[in-house]
Amino acid sequence: MVRNSNDKSLHTGLSWDDLRFVLVLTDSRVLATAAEQLQVSQTTVFRRIKDIEERLGTRLFDRGRYGYVPTSSATSLIEIARQFNDDVNRIALSIAGLDERPSGKVRLSTTDTIMAAILKEILTPLHQALPLIHLEIQSSNQVMNLSKREADVCIRPCDTPPDHLVGKRLCKMESSIYAPASWADVSYDNINTFPWIGPDDSLSHLQSTQWLAKKGLLEKTIISSNNRQNIAFAASAGLGLAILPCYIGDRDENLRRVCTPIVELKTELWILYHPDLRQSKRITDFVNTLFQLLLPYQPLIEGLLPKY
């Protein structure tokens, strides 16, 4: 068949679909098998190959006793088709891998002391494990409302998580009374005779604030703050006694424990998030990675490294 030079079908540009037909027939050698793999009819495969041959002006296959055998003219085209097919597969796998890797923004809320004493130490391995996560950290002693999406994940001390949240319990969390290391004469029996560093009214919801109020020790405060890290700084500077989480006090060489952890202040540390996010790979992978990185800090958080 001779085509008019003005016929648009004379254009020899090949698409990936054209190459796919050539490659499948090359590998299968049988028209029926190629048609099955391509999910078209045998007639479609036959006509498509003939059309490609006419556009290229050369025969691509000889039909013999072993089926459709590529001609020498088809060798270069088949090599290009295989290379292109490999490239397409690599691109598809790359895209699928990116889809499987958690990415996007995660808003994490935690307390000032957890951020300063623990979380800062795992930020690098956290980023290395989840390089496509953009972490937004909110450090506050106020409880974020996860239902209103003020944060995606929070690390919080609590005895029982709210019913509307899910998460992982990390460990128990202990707190104690700490004095400047040079104040050797301080004991639990005489703590009401020394100055205190305490929380201000904005932290009235904390168990430690309520314990101090019950013991009448808030009246002994000479410095108060809305930031528990500031309270630790002031105590470490030698200005007074303070109630601190053991993971803060036990690491400060300028402080010593006055007593064993206070039973009334024992709570648990949780990683929490909203149940609507359970299907989010970004959130679940982040929570699981965060949990594994925090596990080595369990003895410190539980007050198992005494300093008194």
Order of helices and strands: HHHEEHEHEEEEEHEHEHEEHH
Poorly predicted sequence stretches spanning 5 or more consecutive residues: 1-11, 144-148
Strand order of the largest sheet: 4-3-5-12-6
Helix coverage percent: 25-40%
Question: What are the defining features of this structure?
Answer:
5-stranded mixed beta sheet, 3-stranded antiparallel beta sheet, 308 residues, disordered N terminus, alpha/beta, 21% strand
Describe the protein.
The chain has ten helices and twelve strands. It has helices spanning 16-28, 31-38, 42-56, 75-100, 112-129, 207-214, 228-236, 246-249, 281-294, 298-301; strands at 61-64, 67-70, 104-110, 133-139, 153-157, 166-173, 175-180, 196-199, 221-225, 242-245, 255-257, 267-273. The protein has a five-stranded mixed sheet with strand order 4-3-5-12-6, covered by helices on one side. The protein is rod-shaped.
